[in-house]
Amino acid sequence: MDVEQNIPASMPAGLPAFDQATLDRISNARLPDHSEIIGFIRGIEPLQAALLAACGVIYLLYGWKAFKALVIVNAAILGAAAGALLAVKFQHQDLWLYAAGGGAALAGLLAWPFMRLAVALMGGLAGAIFGRQIFIQAVTILERPELLQYSWAGCIVAGLIFSLLAFMVFRLVVIILTSFQGGGMIFCGLAAMMLRIPELSDKVGPELRNNVNLVPIAIIAIAACGFLYQLFRADPPPAPAQPAPAG
């Protein structure tokens, strides 16, 4: 029995298509599948693609240096999604935009004084989603579909591990999260721009559509470069302490 069958299939009508799909994924606690990722990339306009890639570079290379601002931005985005989701869940579809704005403002304001907790929560959320996907993949490989109903266990274990790591190795968790987020943004932005160029679209389009491993491999490769850059680049050494004046 597939665990996703126990979750409401979709939200009520009243949201734009992209927001609707995003909220569906949040409510199902799952990553978008290959076709959804390709559909999202094809729907990105050129200016949006350039902006997405540029912002991805900031996350990828300067995630640790600018982590406070980036965590607040991420908190605002998650707050907006949570506000819209609650509005739809309580049958107030006409107020989802106001709920999203209120959720974004509240989450952004709370993230500033509770920065470490905000990172722990984001790490836990990312860990829970990836943990569930890993559990499902493992069960599929082992051909044990009856275990899918316990995918929540993967969510809890991975989420707790990442949350605790945020308190123990804060810098490492920030670098991991921003590297993967930046890698995903850069890949989507560059792929969208290439699909808008006729000379490249004929070559890139079929590869994106038919090679299901291309997206995760490319994102992991980009994220790995950003992770190593942030982790090992030389920071300015602290100024040497001045000797105390004699006497």
- The percent of residues in helical segments reads over 70%
Please give the largest β-sheet.
none
Low-confidence stretches: 1-18
> Given the C-alpha coordinates, what overall shape results?
globular
Cα radius of gyration in angstroms: 21 Å
Element pattern in H and E = HHHHHHHHHH
> How would you name the oligomeric state of the polypeptide chains in this document?
single chain
Q: Helix count?
A: 10
- Protein structure class: mainly alpha
Could you give the count of β-strands? 0
Instruction: Give the rounded overall mean pLDDT.
Output: 81
Strand content: under 5%
User: Terminal Cα separation, in Å?
Assistant: 80 Å
Can you describe this structure?
It is a single chain. This protein is an all-alpha fold. It has a domain at 35-66 and 115-232. 73% of the residues lie in helices and 0% in strands. The chain has helices spanning 17-28, 34-42, 46-62, 67-89, 96-111, 115-142, 151-168, 170-195, 198-210, 214-232. α4 (67-89) packs across α6 (115-142) and α7 crosses α8 (170-195). Mean pLDDT is 81; it is low at 1-18.
Topology:
Blueprint: H1 17-28, H2 34-42, H3 46-62, H4 67-89, H5 96-111, H6 115-142, H7 151-168, H8 170-195, H9 198-210, H10 214-232
Helix pairs in contact: 3-8, 4-5, 4-6, 6-7, 6-8, 7-8, 8-10
Summarize the structure.
The chain has about 250 residues and is an all-alpha fold. The chain is about 75% helix and about 0% strand.
Defining traits:
globular, 0% strand, single chain, 10 helices, disordered N terminus, mainly alpha, 73% helix, 247 residues
